[in-house]
Amino acid sequence: MNVKNKLINMYDLITCLTNACDLINPQLVNHHLQVGYLALKIGEELGLPKKQLKDLILAGLLHDVGALEYNERLELIENEPPTAQSHAFKGARLLEGFSYLKNAAEIIRFHHVPWNKGQGAAYSGQEVPLLSHIIHLADRVAVQIDRNREVLGQVSGILKRIQSQKNTNFVPELVDILNKIGRHEYIWLDMVNHYLPNILMDTMLFDTMDLSIEETIELAKIFAKIIDFRSPYTANHSAGVAKTAEKLAELAGFSDIECKMMLIAGYLHDLGKLAIPNDVLEKTGKLDINEFNLIRCHSYYTYRLLQPIKEFEQIAIWAASHHEKLNGEGYPFHLGADCIPLGSRIMAVADIFTAVTEDRPYRKGMGYEETVRVLNSMVENKSICPYVVSIVIDNFDLINQIRIEAQQKASIDYNRYMADD
Ligand SMILES: [Fe+2]
Ligand SMILES: [Fe+2]
Ligand SMILES: [Fe+2]
């Protein structure tokens, strides 16, 4: 793959992230897309300029990234608890550092502020963008759609309930717009349509949003936070894996651009972990068979989420085959030595190296001798690549230092993310 000159479409990456976040709970499938779509329709009716419509869709697609726990997401779907502000602020903190998402982050920060007869025009002295109120309204409409029933029969009930909160929870002008566009069947049919991602893409709003490789790395770093910050046990894992894999790639003679791709793959290798409930993710004791099966799904989901991004063909393979083994006993594809490329071998070793050397809240990481023993025994039983392990052993201190620094940095980010608002 040549990504050097090829730019990566940001919409593809964002929908990948949206789909990953919606894995947290099957009840949420397409929720982010529905909110993005309905917000767009309200924004169009309001006559907002193209630039704002784009930010509105992005905010809709990502509005709940700060709510990464299964139960928290479910609660937000069912009602709007007073604690809802917290995930809105967290979501904004995750995204605000990336220039393309700065405006979306501002919108997300206030997406649960009630209108409260006009008092919701500001929150703690800060102006609340009208676009936040649009997301709020679209979100509260989308959560009312019962996926198991035909949608058109639900419309009048949904609109009635929204109408009853006009001026208290929602901006009156926006409720009027919703009532107006809500008469159009196609809006509701689009919202429950399987092809909603394509429908949004067809708006052509994202045609010109291509990211360079450097920008893609920045966005992948945000993905890593979304994956890792769900739990203090994993809070800096992907950062360690990414930097370790990048260094191993460099030492193995990969080109500059390939090393950058490896870094991206490292940040994304556990993307499918968003499908694993927190209690399983955080279990330190032995997993039962059902829990283990849930864990075994994650690299499969990583593959399926990344694979639709056409510029990520290589990255998807490197990222998703980190639990494959040379003896064919790994998962989910049971690739054997003949089919596991060097990039995937590097990722597997980077993952194991990071997992055993990193400190976790419940245990200390291993030192040199123990780590080498673990890696060598895995070479012996033909799980991992002897060549890559030899690179680790020859450069242990260098690689370990890079891992430590990356994880320390990620921990600082995590503490900031978790800070009270
Ligand atoms: Fe929310
Ligand atoms: Fe993994
Ligand atoms: Fe991992």
Secondary structure topology:
Elements: E1 8-9, H1 10-22, H2 31-46, H3 50-62, H4 70-78, H5 84-95, H6 102-109, E2 122-123, E3 126-127, H7 130-142, H8 155-163, H9 172-181, H10 185-191, H11 196-201, E4 210-211, H12 213-228, H13 237-251, H14 256-268, H15 278-281, H16 289-296, H17 298-306, H18 313-320, H19 342-357, H20 368-380, H21 386-394, H22 396-418
Antiparallel strand pairs: 1-4, 2-3
Structure description:
- The structure is a single chain.
- The chain is an all-alpha fold and 421 residues long.
- The protein has two domains: 8-201, Hypothetical protein af1432 (Orthogonal Bundle); 214-418, Orthogonal Bundle (Hypothetical protein af1432).
- The protein is built from 22 helices and four strands.
- It has a two-stranded antiparallel ribbon with strand order 1-4. Strands 2-3 form a two-stranded antiparallel ribbon.
- It is elongated and about 70 Å long.
- The protein binds fe (ii) ion (FE2) (3 copies).
- One fe (ii) ion binds at residues 63-64, 76, 87-88, 111-112, 139.
- One fe (ii) ion is lined by residues 237, 241, 269-270, 351.
